[in-house]
Amino acid sequence: MRVSTSQIHQQATAQLSRLGQETSLSQQRIASGQKLLKASDDPVAAAKILELNQDLAVREQYLKNADQAQTQLQAQDSVITQVVESLQRVRELTLQAGDGTLTSQDRSFMAEELDARLGEMRSLLNSRGADGNYLFSGFQGDREPFADIGGQLSFVGDQGQRRVQIDHSSTVALGVSGFRLFEDVGSADIVPWVQTSQTNRSEVDLTAKVIDQEKLTDFSPDNLAVEFFNDDASGDLLFSVTRAGDGRVVDGLERQPFAANLNLESVGLDLRFSGQPSPGDSFLVDSSPSQGLLGTAQEIANKLADPNSATNNSNDLLRGLIDSTLIELDNSLNTMLGVQAELGAEQNRIESTAELHRTVELQGKQALSSLRDVDFAQAVSDLSYQAFLLEAAQQSFVRVNNLSLFNAL
Amino acid sequence: MASLLNIGASGLRTQQAALTVTGQNITNANTEGYTRQRVNSEPQLQGLNGSRFAGAGVRVTDIQRITDGFAEAQVLKDTSLFAQNDTLATQIAQIDGVLFDAAGGLNGALEQFFASVNAAVVNPDSLPERQLVLAQAQGLAGRFASLGDTLGAAGDNFRASLESTVSGINGLSASIAQLNDRIANLNSGEQNGALNGLLDQRQALLADLATLADVQITEQAGNQVSVLVGKGQPLVLGANAQQLAVRGDEVVALNGTDQRVITKSLTGGTLGGLLEFNGQVLKPTQQALGQLAFTLVDQVNAVQSVGIDLDGQSGRPVFADPNTEPLPGLRSARLDQLPAASGSIKVHVVDAAKSPLTSYHLEFSEVDANAFSVIRQSDGQVVAKGSRDGTAGQTVEFDQVVLTLGGDFSAGQRYELNPLADAFNNVRVVLADAKGLAFAQPLRAEALLSNSGSGELVLGELFDTNHPQLAQGKDSAPLLIRFSDDNNFDVFDYSDPANPTPLDPPIRRRFTPGQNTSAIADVAQTQQFQSKGALTQQFSEPQVLAAPSTSLASGYPAQTFTLSSDTGAFPLQTLRSGDVVSAKALAAQLTGLSGVTARADTDITLEGLSTNAAGLPLTVYINGEALEEVRSLDDLANKIADSEGLKEQNIQIRRLDDGSGGYLLRDSDGDELVLQVQGDAADSLLISRDGLAQQQLAGVGNGEPALLEGTSDIRAGVDFGFGGPYSLQLATSSGAPLQDISLSGRFDDANALRNGLQEAVDAALGADVVQVGIGSGGNLRFSSRLFGSGAQLEVQTNAAAAGVLGLETQSVAGVDRLASISASGRVSIEVEPGVTLEPSTSEVFAFDPNFARADLGFAFELNGVPKAGDGFVVEFNADGSSDNRNGLNMAALQTASLIGDPGSTLAEGYAQLVAQVGVEAGQAANNRDAAQGLLEQSIARRESVSGVNLDEEAANLIRFEQAYNASAQVISVARDIFNSLLNAVA
Fold first, then answer.
1. Residue A255 belongs to what domain range?
2. CA of B623 vs chain A CAs: smallest distance (Å)
3. Are residues B735 and B618 part of one domain?
4. Residue B566: HSE in the Cβ half-sphere, 13 Å Cα cutoff
5. pLDDT band per the 50, 70, 90 thresholds, residue B531
6. Residue B732's closest CA among B777, B658, B784?
7. What is the pLDDT of residues B272-315, one digit of tens each?
8. Is B390 contained in some domain?
9. What percent of chain A has pLDDT over 70?
10. Fewer beta carbons below 10 Å: N end or C end of chain A?
11. Residue B696 and residue B591 in one domain
12. A:B CB pairs within 8 Å
């Protein structure tokens, strides 16, 4: 075939430029250490690299979250351990209080230590975590979860639980709610739990004490509602006591006149009002099968504190108090030990999940490296081969170019 | 001799010409488009030499261009192919590298954004962490914008290149047409040289044109060519050239005022490469990136909207809503060149994540300016058709787009709609205050401390923050979800814990323990309407019955229900209920219809109860269950509450809150309630029902007690100490043991006797059972109000007593009659949104177009086993600074499969986009290399025919030089011969 002279030149230049490009690309790969310089070099690998990067980032996040969760759970765990210690001391004191040789005076001294322990437990329950939030207050991290309300240590947090994601499909709670741990503890008997309506307009308080446990137990699970209103005709302040469940009147206490410092008895409870209620005020007395840990401790401390109290001067009453207190303290202990076991299990779960993430992360990094990183041995050998080819092409071009008939003319 | 001289001279001329052409070839060896030439010569035949024919030398016939038409055509074709792929590869390379770049790609920014969300969610009340989220959101917005800039620059580049390519084509077409003209005029006997030059020129122009577009070239008479592009669109016809023009992203062929869009038919060349880049790479990439941006913004804002921020306020958008003005108005572009009309177009995107990646064309009919259709560009389907109704806000819905048309359009107007393609340029962070990140949820649920069961309430999706129950934010009333028994719960307004009030309409649901993890599905978004109760028999007329009854006396008449779906989810359904069915049965039938949940309940208000003047107790039967010794309404209520039988029937009593002292008697299954009273006319139970007149259910005893009367006149008194022994026994029901009444002592008159006997009777039988009296004839009477079957007054006397009192052993039956009334239940029907249910008789079902809502705006799950009386409070999450539930939802967007179906995460979506571009770029580069190979081959083939080889030309130079020298020698020989002749003569 004929070959035109310009074509000899064109083909040679094209060839040289192609070899030059390849050589330069190889050099870039070696310099950057990356196999893929743009997605079109290997689209499938490019997508895979992006996905792997994403997966690694997410796993790293999960590991961070797992760390946070561990810290938080350990903080709760150690607080619970301290509460358990205090509680055991309270239990010992309760047992001692039952010693028949003690005088009521002795017992009132013991009440002082009980009080100290109570304060200790209260401050433990109101501990803050590393992030500055209260450990046991639920969602209201800025609010002290256990507060003194009308002389009663009550839980004012909520049952919310902060959680963090530690895996694609699972979250872990940053601890256990204070409600479950310290408040919703089974009591020996049904106990009254007074709730003051948030819409009450006056500073009126209601205290409820059990005087006939049997009646109250019969009455439960219904709750008691007390409402104040004005008589339409006379304008006198009246009150009614009804069942919260269906509104039926209890013990005939309907439209009764209210008198200052009213004291009445219903469903085995001694109900005492202090302050002057306004019409529209109301109370709910829950009959609760649960009593808070602080409530239990507070009850025995209060009853033993006064050497002249009825409990302190009646063996039967004292016996009953100690028995029910022990039951409640044991329930509390069991709850806490159970929760501690749960926390331990949870920490194990977090650790094993984290371990899994670390393993997968390692594999992912290897996969990423094999997709993305240059194999230097290969690349350098490629480069020297390409350089060799380029050189050969250049030299042969010069040789071919020197051949011309005109040289012979 | 002269001829030999001439022959030599002709040789000289011819070889000189050959040398000239060779020189021409040599000097043009590097000239683009030059075709090597050759001198063709032929012997001259004239001239007789004596009688022999000897020829007259040589003659140049022509100077030929050495070409091969096939080779030329192949070169043009391969040039087009190469130019197309080269352009495509070059264009894609602009974006290929940037999209994948770790620094310039999207995924790095996505990772950083979500990492900051995660960090903030762990400590939801930490302001620095929250601020970082907003900063990273800015970064993400910036990254979208810079990717948008890259794509925008590629788009600008595309449009500029398209313009210049089209104007290049137009210029080349015009030049070729001119050359055609000149070549046609040359043909009439001009020199070959000029023609060859023109042909070479035209071939070079054709080659240039082939670089720009794939053209079809046809040889015409007179060395002219015609050039066609696309599917037969002429560019050059003889001396005429036709013009192309660019309209937006489209190429149109101009023919006078007529414009024809030919974009789709254009392939090959730079033009084809550009159009392919725009259509196959740039636009899909913009749409995919737009979808990512739109989806991210939508989803983050959606999560935000159901949460509350650190100040307890409902979450505000983090990013500007892509559907707010003016953005929807910027998603369309005119394609036609018609005069402007007043029409405006707005494109709203409903759910970007589900949008197909395509643009649409909105086309108004050429003949009717009102008729329009929307064509999806990805598959050419007509997705919507309509007629302009002239309103300012006419909407058309298709795919995930809501198109709003306003103003007037003119016939033939065409628009391109790009729902997604601009979203990445409009990702803007509008939330300025880091406190505004709504990591908390607005509600929290709490079990009451008094709960005795193991139930647990878990809040589910919050699907309507505007629900009246939630819209007040922190002032929303707390709700109490309380189990009235183990299987049913009611929802109350819990603002006043001592007095929870039922919602309006009341919400009551059934719960089956063991249904642990599944959501209480029917606390979903539904609407409710209620029947008025059975039409004809809301109360039956009081009837006198012989025995307590439980049989159905009132109910719903037969009627037809028509069920239709607004969305066409199911065909029209009808249901014909049976004749006189209970509310419960009707509800069960209706619940069988799709989208309908019906519940029945029956209630009666007990307003008062009065006993006769003597204050004797009465007996009330409820559904056949006897409640005896009833003395007051409170007494009745207590007996109802204590009755195990009624509890089993799910019948409950509840005191009214209105202070009237009345009670609501309620059967939560919707069974008929039958009330019966046993007493006399003065005994009555006052009952009423919503919207109905009060009814008095009075006893039917009529004051006529069962009576046994002696025959002796005892007004003179009786002395039981005398004679005897006297024995009298009484009983008040058959078969019951007779009670001894002591007959002793002396009574001086009838009254004394009556009093004494009454005392003895009361002692034996109890008070108020049997009355002792004296008749008008002075005879002794025993009377008793006795009800029910088997009730009878029976007396036995011995002979002595019978003699004195005139009272034989005898018995009389009691009045065995009951006043009875029955009430049928009410049916509450909940229909899902989009479902309409119509009964045939609207008197039974009150129709209100504004159905009352029967949902709470949120869903919840109940786990475990709650017990009667257990309650759960759902209240506003006040001060919930540590709550991160909603934040977790936001963080979860990172790994959620948001885009498309089956769904990929945002990062995966981006990786797919990058891979797609990479594949296209790789393919274009491969195709370019292949096309280059082909082009080189076809050029080699053409060059092998038409190219100049200098060696060859050098050889020719020598050859022609030798021939020239030889010809000169011929002349020299001729001169020698002539000289010899002269010498001979001389």
1. 192-288
2. 20
3. no
4. 7
5. low
6. B784
7. 999 999 888 998 999 999 999 999 999 999 999 989 999 888 89
8. no
9. 99
10. N
11. yes
12. 272
